[in-house]
Amino acid sequence: VDEKEEAAAASPESKIAAQMMEAMKPQRVGSGPGAGNGYEILLQAFNWESWKHSYYRTLKSQVKDIANTGFTSIWMPPPSDSVSEQGYLPRDLYCLDSRYGTEAELRDVIKTFQEHNIKVIADIVVNHRCASQQGPDGKWNKFGGRMAWDSSAICHNNPAYGGRGAAKQGDDYTAAPNVDHTQERVRNDIINWMKYLRNTIGYNGWRFDFVRGYPGQFCKQYVDATVPEMSFGEYWDSCDYTDGVLNYNQDSH
């Protein structure tokens, strides 16, 4: 090797240039579960009225176009049985037949997205949960399905639902019973349900709804226990409500 070439290669300028070129190479983020790869392009693939048609089937027909556009991940609506059509008042969490379509259609569209190398993100609503029946006190606090809770799973400062759990540790959500995340058995039920979505249904990650409602330490437990490829949460100023019902017009917000 020529001595002048060796000297040039060892010069401070060449070392800095080499470092800069190395830094410009695509890097993978390894900061733990839920971090993604640092180069995600996320599509919110639904709106407030998507439930009005055969959503899962329609979305499946658009997978190829979404992939060709360059999106790497897709955010889908809450998948569970819900009092509200949009899915944000979940009831029987394990029942995945909703206004968006059947569980079979959900599995099919997830599989199709993943065949096109697109991560599928589930909207996770765990701040609150609607009961299936009225309890002995006449209030809606008797939950159905595999997570058959009672009023003891509801925060006690949620009097409209007769809660007997610990005090609410975040913002109150007046439209539904607020879940007491301080209880280990409640957290375990939520984790097992999320593992079912992750390992059986096939979701790649989570979008946590209304994270202002409970401490971040619990979100961390759910992420660590389920190891999603990507996760993020909804943290924003309070929406406009009338008598506990979300207003359709949120322009002032």
UniProtKB/TrEMBL annotation:
GO terms for biological process: carbohydrate metabolic process. Residues 40-253 form the Glycosyl hydrolase family 13 catalytic domain. InterPro entries: GH, GH13_cat_dom. Gene3D superfamilies: Glycosidases (3.20.20.80). Signal peptide: none annotated. It comes from the Eukaryota. PANTHER family: ALPHA-AMYLASE. Belongs to the glycosyl hydrolase 13 family. This is 1,4-alpha-D-glucan glucanohydrolase. The lineage of its organism: Eukaryota, Viridiplantae, Chlorophyta, core chlorophytes, Chlorophyceae.
